[in-house]
Amino acid sequence: MQTEPAADQNRAYSYLGPAGTFTEAALKQVAAAVGQEWRSVNNVGEALADVTSGRSTAAMIAIENSVEGGVSATQDALATVPGLRIIGEYLVSVNFVLVARPGTTLADVTTINAHPVAYAQCHTWLGENLPAHAHLPASSNVQAASSLLDGSIADAAIAPPGIVDHYDVEVLARDIGDNRNAVTRFVLVSSSRVLPEPTGADKTSLIIELPSDEPGALLAMLEQFSTRGVNLSLIESRPIGDALGRYRFVVDIDGHIRDERVADALLGLRRFSPNVIFLGSYPRADLQAVEYHAKYDDGIFIEARDWLRGLLSAEPEA
């Protein structure tokens, strides 16, 4: 169960538009957004600006794809825009259709308009069926299709399956994605500092900088998790941008900041790293309970602290 802002009459939600995008499909999963204002924006930066300015309560943005990996624009924005928290995640199955203006046949297609990520996920089908085509990049999957009706030089476009519900285009081919199990992970980002309560099936997102570029630095960071039984479900590096060879790490871990093992790992990171950005603890979209060894139960950490407190206060040993 996702933790979301309570619905009222004065809330807006931003998403990468226009209508018909996979981002809109993710936002449709947010119960609190039903019946509220939805703001269609052009890019991640605009969506997050809506949140930080107060124009929107939250923004839905793509953060990871099962085929292409992390969405670098989102990762970089979350690292550089202060005051943001992830309050929920949502999964959307991803597949594509090839669409064209009415009357166009597959044999007519020589140029295809497509978002670069969608294009990359359709290479096999395109290579087999349209080996001589040219690619015209688009800003979104829906924009690729809508451009066909706005004078685009492209003959066809790669778009989401529901595009025909929004635009007068014909489907030339369905299920053209290379991986039919492809999934995109979206996150709902807010400026709220209120933490969702732990569910037992939670995820915590962090961005971490290494203190120095030296042998063992990455291992030392990873040990903050391994010695506390905390599993990493994602780790990716992104350039910091201030010098060549300087990177930050985008990390997702299993568990909630209120879990003792996770909290203790964050304390270790804080002592170790010059910059740790806490992006939030929130329910996992798949609702899969986090598994860990019993020696990392909350009670073990609490007992250890009590034991140390007793030593420091000269309490008699039991």
From TrEMBL:
GO terms for cellular component: cytoplasm. The record marks 184 as: Essential for prephenate dehydratase activity. Residues 12-191 form the Prephenate dehydratase domain. Gene3D superfamilies: 3.30.70.260, Periplasmic binding protein-like II (3.40.190.10). Pathway: Amino-acid biosynthesis; L-phenylalanine biosynthesis; phenylpyruvate from prephenate: step 1/1. PROSITE patterns: ACT, PREPHENATE_DEHYDR_1, PREPHENATE_DEHYDR_3. One of its GO terms (molecular function) is prephenate dehydratase activity. Keywords: Amino-acid biosynthesis, Aromatic amino acid biosynthesis, Lyase, Phenylalanine biosynthesis. Residues 206-284 form the ACT domain. Its EC number is 4.2.1.51. SUPFAM superfamilies: ACT-like, Periplasmic binding protein-like II. It comes from the Bacteria. GO terms for biological process: L-phenylalanine biosynthetic process. InterPro entries: ACT-like_dom_sf, ACT_dom, Chor_mutase/pphenate_deHydtase, Preph_deHydtase, Preph_deHydtase_CS. It catalyses: prephenate + H(+) = 3-phenylpyruvate + CO2 + H2O. This is Prephenate dehydratase. It comes from Agromyces atrinae.
